[in-house]
Amino acid sequence: MPHSFGLRARTRHMFSRNFREHGSIPLSTYLKVYKVGDIVDIKANAAVQKGMPHKFYHGRTGIVYNVTKSAVGVIINKRVGNRYIEKRVNIRVEHIKHSKCRQEFLDRVKENAAKKKAAKAAGVFVNTKRIPAQPREARHVSTKNNVPQTIAPVPYETLL
Prior knowledge:
The protein is flat and about 75 Å long. It has a five-stranded antiparallel sheet with strand order 4-3-2-1-5, with no helix packed on it. 15% of the residues lie in helices and 21% in strands. With 160 residues, it is α+β, with helices and mostly antiparallel strands. The protein is built from two helices and five strands, in the order H-E-E-E-E-E-H.
């Protein structure tokens, strides 16, 4: 049998509501403030069919370029062949949320600013660069009261 190629084809699990998150949409969804330049994640809410993004954009991250009463315009880079096309999509606020992808960076900026201010007041240099995990320091194991033990494999025994 031929299968369908509709707008919502193969979205059975993609557009389903999460466990214990069915029912009415909380008011906090509508009270969030979106500004031009905000980074948002697109996650379609199947309870609201109006302003729902196409299944391709589900799970994508974009930048807000326009804000209206009940929807926002989002710029998403879509890969088509060997190039990226800037797509502008208008999506209702039920289907988007603020992205947390920059939160760690913003926290680090604030933390580094505080470190620099404290270091300047103390008159010392502080390194604010991230340092990758270094190798563990060397250890010395003494055999004075720790005699080495020979380890041998246990012979295989059947349980019959």
